[in-house]
Amino acid sequence: MLAAALPAGAASGDGYGRDHDRGRTVDVQMLSFNDLHGTLEPPQGSSGNVTERQADGTTKAIPAGGVEYLATSLREARKGHRYSVTAAAGDMIGASPMVSGLFHDEPAIEALNDLDLDVSSVGNHEFDEGKTELRRMQYGGCHPVEGCFEPGKEFGGAEFKYLAANVVDDRTKRPMLNPTYIWKKGDVKIGFIGVTLEGTPDIVTADGVKGLTFGDEVETINKYADQLNRQGVKSIVALIHEGGLPASGAYNYDCNVPGAGAGISGAIVDIAKNVSPKVDALVTGHTHQAYACNIPDPAGNSRTVTSAASYGRLYTDTTLTYDRRTKDIVRTPVKAPLVVQKVVNRDQPKAPDLTELIQRWNALAAPIANRPMGYISADIAGRGSTEYEKPLGSVIADAQLEALAPADKGGAQLALMNPGGIRSDLAYKAAGAEGDGVVTYGESYTVQPFTNMMTVVDLTGAQLITALQQQVTGPVNGLSPKILQVSKGFTYTLDTTKAGADRIVVDSVKLNGEAIDPARTYRVAMNEFLAGGGDGFGVLKEHKNKLVGASDLDIFNAYLTGHSSPAAPLAPPAADRITVIK
Question: How confident is the model at residue 19 (pLDDT cuts 50, 70, 90)?
């Protein structure tokens, strides 16, 4: 398997994975992953591939993911390692496919228990259903409204520790879950600190984070690193649900080009440069990217910063050389832990116990999941699309406009859809028993799992233009543009050769061929997440005259049913709404 090279920090001499039971040092294997999002079955479409860079510079797409394969991979990786710990960097649940999401992610937690996960930070999606539900995920108990999903069986909760060091309960003034976890094996101790991004309230509905305060990642990690040191724990790993953007999408890209962190950008770079030298490795997530970088700590010693893409398609195998005398991980300016990124291939055996788990929950979901909702003539890319204008985003926005355009439904003139809310593709040849081109309820649910209520609001033309500019500006979107998906008839030009707000060509913004009038009021459909200013679109929460409609999922399903049949399936729409200048 190709490794993500760390030229400045590659371990040498002792040999990867060898235990030094009688010597001063011992190799501890740390397996890690992130952003599973309750994806138990192999993800569909291009979201189910990883990109591998070949020796000749070309790239190859490799099908990957699915917890049956992830379990096999992790179990094989642990063989021969007396000291092995498994950690994750958040978003284990939330925005999940139907087989997990329909049951409030109890299946995902069960699967993670079977994967022998030891510890995970919380991510922003752990808060999708609020703090009370997150605590239920940790401690167990049946759902307070829907009860127990399996007769005679109560949900047991996570057997691993969820860490939320920088998430403070406003009532108690303490972290809402444990801030740290100490893993012990014999005389080896490694401390874990878990944080989510400080900006979680910007990307979660207000109800999901009500009563919580999210602290600075660096300040929190440094505080608890000092605390662990006072407890005698010198080896420390930070699990951070915040990430970066490598210069290449290939999982085996070497991001250690000259200059500290030069091969990667994004929020994690500044975090890595400022986290205390007492922390020996950073396991990160959130951006769904794959990287294994070496960003020196403030003392100048090499330190690894890793992320294993998403949906269980990759895992990271890190060797931490533990010094029994100092109780610390061996690091110098030229030596960091050895890191290998490994693909969760689907050409290996499935783990039978995970297969049984999926089958059990699928059987409970089947009466709902297998209902046909519509028909498509080809793949309609959503989450897996790399384009600014995503075909499935256009379909969703059109569905929302059609449902909410009637005067008694809100009188919408256009619709806006956040790209992060599109969680999958619609695949023509999907998994399951249905025929090619059939879209089932389970598949549409996987695309729109949040069940956000739709709203129609008043926005001025000036506010609409500001919203378009906020796609490419601000602390949330400046480095990673979040391009809103727009309904038919709404068009504009995005000039990527410009910087900041100038990327939006204001004169090009039109509705049904007519230039947007900054002084005029427009009726705009969007989900409640966007209406609350989510994803950095602060101007959208300045709306007036809000009308609440049906859920986004109900509207999406109604559109699929009304616009397709076996004889006339829905085709991918043309990309003619956002003109991109490169």
Answer: very low
Distance CA 582, CA 579 (A): 10
What 3-state DSSP class applies to 389? coil
Distance separating alpha carbons of residues 54 and 3, to the nearest angstrom: 12
Please, what is the Cα angle at 236 between 232 and 238, to 5 degrees? Answer: 140
Q: In 90-166, at which residue ranges do the beta strands (DSSP E only) sit?
A: 119-121, 161-163
Compute φ and ψ for 74, nearest 5 degrees.
Answer: -65, -40
**CB 193 within 8 Å of CB 165:** yes
Dump pLDDT digits (tens) for 180-206. 999 999 999 999 999 999 999 988 888
Strand, helix or coil for residue 173: coil
Structure tokens, 152: 């005679």
Each residue's pLDDT tens digit, 257-315: 665 456 898 899 999 999 999 999 999 999 999 999 999 999 999 999 999 999 999 99
CA quadruple 36, 39, 42, 46: dihedral sign: negative
What phi, psi does 256 have (nearest 5°)? -95, 50
Residue written as token pair 């993500």: 4
Q: Tell me which residue of 354, 579, 357, 565 sits closest to 486, measured CA to CA.
A: 579
> For residue 9, what pLDDT band results from cuts at 50, 70 and 90?
very low
Measured in degrees and rounded to the nearest 5, phi and psi for residue 455 equal: -130, 155
**β-pairing, 161-163 with 119-121?**
parallel
Q: Is the pLDDT of residue 433 over 70?
A: no
pLDDT at 475 over 70: no
Give the C-alpha separation, 86 to 68, whole Å: 17
Q: Which of 519, 386, 517, 370 is nearest to 445 (CA)?
A: 370
CB 529 within 8 A of CB 452: yes
In angstroms, the CA 238 to CA 305 distance is 10
0.85 surpassed by pTM: yes
Q: Are 231 and 24 in contact (CB under 8 A)?
A: no
DSSP secondary structure of 472-495: S-HHHHSSS--PPEE-TTEEEEEE
% of residues, the chain, pLDDT over 90 = 85
Q: What 3-state DSSP class applies to 274?
A: helix
Burial class (CB in 10 A: 0-12, 13-18, 19+), 495: middle
Amino acid making up residue 511: L
Give pLDDT tens digits for 531-570: 989 888 999 999 999 999 999 999 999 999 999 999 999 9
**Position 6 confidence tier, pLDDT thresholds 50, 70, 90:** very low
Taking alpha carbons only, the member of 366, 446, 430, 414 closest to residue 530 is: 414
Of 455, 382, 387, nearest in space to 420 by CA:
382
Give strand pairing partners of 431. none
Reading the block at residue 503, the tokens are 């990327």
Q: How is residue 45 annotated by DSSP?
A: G
For 471, the token pair is 């796609």
State which H helix or E strand residue 98 sits in: helix 98-101
227 CB burial (10 A radius; 0-12, 13-18, 19+): middle
